[in-house]
Design goal:
Length: 237
């Protein structure tokens, strides 16, 4: 019975180790941080895409006005316009186009600066996201290796437990399992000296007398905690 209890405690410890691997918490924290970076990266990608379209439009606007100014300048230089009034209007339009080009180029420069800053943020976030992905892969590999080792231990000890359990009466094993469920995983404990090692309480003299008089194969119970009490060479009976 004590062998069964010991094997069950080992299985409990393995289950605890599986649930409390440091990789579990590290992955949980990493995924939370990565989700924030991934969300920010989506926002950055959208901003960069919008600014690139805006820059493309700004480039196109500047080019269209420059072409119009070039055509007017060509007309002016060719001497085709001879009317003083038409010449004045043409020169005035060229001046207006020059100012328009200057304004558009200022706007174009502003968009370029915003785009450069947005691309820097995007690159930083992408680098961080890639680093998170690499770290996540490392943690998952470490976790899986630890789980595999624990599962192998669990299978080995589980086989030992099955072998031990088959040597005990089935009703006793069922009783032991019920006691385990209600006593923190300890269903059977040795009697060391006068003390039950399940609840650490010293048994009354009358209880010890009853235990001493019990048959060798009798199922004993601790009067204090109700666990199955197993006599050993260290028992004071």
């Amino acid at each position: 019975m004590l062998d069964l209890q010991d094997l069950d405690l080992q299985l409990d410890q393995i289950a605890h180790k599986r649930a409390s691997l440091p990789e579990h918490q590290a992955l949980k924290e990493l995924v939370a941080e990565k989700s924030v970076v991934d969300r920010d990266l989506v926002t950055a990608d959208t901003e960069v895409s919008d600014l690139r379209r805006e820059q493309k439009k700004a480039d196109s606007d500047v080019e269209q006005v420059k072409q119009r100014r070039a055509r007017n300048q060509q007309r002016l230089d060719s001497g085709q316009v001879t009317s003083p009034r038409d010449l004045e209007n043409l020169q005035h339009e060229i001046g207006s186009l020059e100012r328009r080009i200057s304004d558009l180029e200022d706007a174009e420069l502003e968009v370029m600066e915003k785009l450069e800053a947005a691309e820097a943020v995007q690159l930083d976030l992408r680098t961080r996201a890639e680093a998170f992905a690499g770290r996540q892969a490392e943690l998952e590999t470490s976790r899986d290796a630890a789980l595999k080792e624990l599962d192998e231990q669990r299978a080995r000890i589980g086989d030992q437990r099955s072998a031990v359990a088959t040597e005990l009466p089935e009703p006793l094993v069922k009783q032991y399992q019920r006691l385990r469920e209600h006593n923190g995983g300890i269903g059977a404990a040795p009697l060391v000296g006068k003390r039950c090692m399940g609840c650490r309480m010293e048994l009354a003299p009358s209880d010890l007398t009853a235990i001493k008089a019990a048959a060798p194969d009798a199922v004993l119970r601790c009067e204090e905690c109700g666990r199955i009490l197993v006599r050993t060479a260290e028992s004071a009976v």
